[in-house]
């Protein structure tokens, strides 16, 4: 079992770090987790064709984690795949998919009419979940667990277990005991890393000051100063950072995280396979 980081960025546009997304490789299966901006392009760069993905998981309903979901669904269909796509997500996932398909209904019908075929429109099967086992495929078990990302009611991390290997994705969360519990002893923990203190303040963005924004972000994200303590308690064989700002500097992150964590650490990059 391996993981490829497709997008290690945030909502802030960054050509080097696309929106949050990763793909788990387990046997013949490629399982896409989150569908941030640029995911279809990143898949192309890895050599994975959209029809090679039949299962897609969403961690939570912040737009940067699903903004290219419609792009992926339609591109998979354009590539000639009429098989259903299975999408697994928190409550309201079905409503989201229905809205996406309604938005693109006109375009899809025009394409079919232009081709002169009786080809079916894309089919998406939605599986809404709460905590617990989400999916089992050929010896791979996927477990969802709650994380803390208020004010989102349903935010999840995932644990992937295959044979004697385990990979854990934190999703978006502040430091969280439930994540430590599910990530304990994993071979690989991919954890978000928001370097909020270095983000430029944008007037008119909803916050009155940089200080107010920093206080708010501490309620639902994990900062570099905190990840080391999380990893120390979870004790993964390898910690990998993701969900990083454009201004994040690898060596600076290493120094900050290393204050509390002495284990193996990789600063994640787009298109990195582990």
Topology overview:
Elements: E1 2-7, E2 21-26, E3 29-33, H1 39-46, E4 53-57, H2 69-78, E5 85-89, H3 93-103, H4 105-115, E6 124-128, E7 132-137, E8 140-146, E9 156-162, E10 165-169, H5 177-183, E11 188-192, H6 210-217, H7 224-234, E12 239-242, H8 250-257, E13 265-267, E14 272-273
Parallel strand pairs: 3-4, 4-5, 5-6, 10-11, 11-12, 12-13
Antiparallel strand pairs: 1-2, 1-14, 2-3, 7-8, 8-9, 9-10
Helix pairs in contact: 5-7
Q: What is this entry, summarized?
A:
The chain is of the alpha/beta class and 274 residues long.
Main attributes of the structure:
7-stranded mixed sheet; 27% helix; alpha/beta; Metallo-beta-lactamase, Chain A; 8 helices; 274 residues
Structural overview:
- The chain has 274 residues and is α/β, with parallel strands linked by helices.
- The protein is built from eight helices and 14 strands.
- It has a single domain, classed as Ribonuclease Z/Hydroxyacylglutathione hydrolase-like (Metallo-beta-lactamase, Chain A), CATH 3.60.15.
- The protein is 27% helix and 26% strand.
- The longest helix has 11 residues.
- The mean pLDDT is 93.
């Amino acid at each position: 079992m391996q993981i490829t980081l497709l997008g290690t960025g945030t909502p802030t546009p960054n050509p080097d770090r696309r929106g949050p997304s990763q793909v788990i490789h387990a046997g013949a299966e490629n399982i896409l987790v989150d569908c941030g901006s640029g995911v279809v392009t990143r898949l192309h760069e890895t050599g994975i064709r959209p029809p090679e993905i039949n299962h897609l998981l969403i961690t939570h309903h912040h737009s940067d984690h699903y903004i290219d979901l419609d792009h992926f669904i339609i591109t998979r269909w354009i590539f000639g795949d009429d098989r259903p796509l299975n999408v697994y997500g928190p409550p309201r996932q079905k409503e989201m998919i229905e809205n996406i398909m309604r938005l693109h209904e006109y375009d899809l019908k025009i394409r079919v009419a232009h081709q002169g075929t009786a080809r079916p429109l894309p089919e998406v099967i939605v599986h809404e979940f709460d905590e617990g086992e989400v999916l089992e495929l050929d010896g791979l078990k996927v477990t969802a667990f709650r994380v803390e990302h208020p004010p989102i009611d349903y935010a999840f991390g995932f644990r992937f277990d295959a044979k004697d290997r385990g990979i854990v994705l934190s999703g978006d969360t502040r430091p969280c005991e439930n994540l430590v519990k599910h990530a304990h002893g994993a071979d690989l923990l991919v954890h978000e890393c928001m370097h909020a203190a270095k983000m430029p303040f944008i007037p008119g963005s909803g916050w009155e000051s940089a200080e107010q924004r920093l206080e708010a972000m501490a309620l639902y994200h994990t900062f570099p100063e905190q990840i080391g303590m999380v990893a120390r308690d979870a004790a993964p064989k390898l910690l990998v950072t993701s969900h990083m700002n454009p201004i994040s500097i690898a060596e600076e992150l290493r120094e900050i995280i290393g204050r509390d964590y002495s284990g193996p650490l990789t600063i994640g990059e787009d298109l990195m396979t582990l």
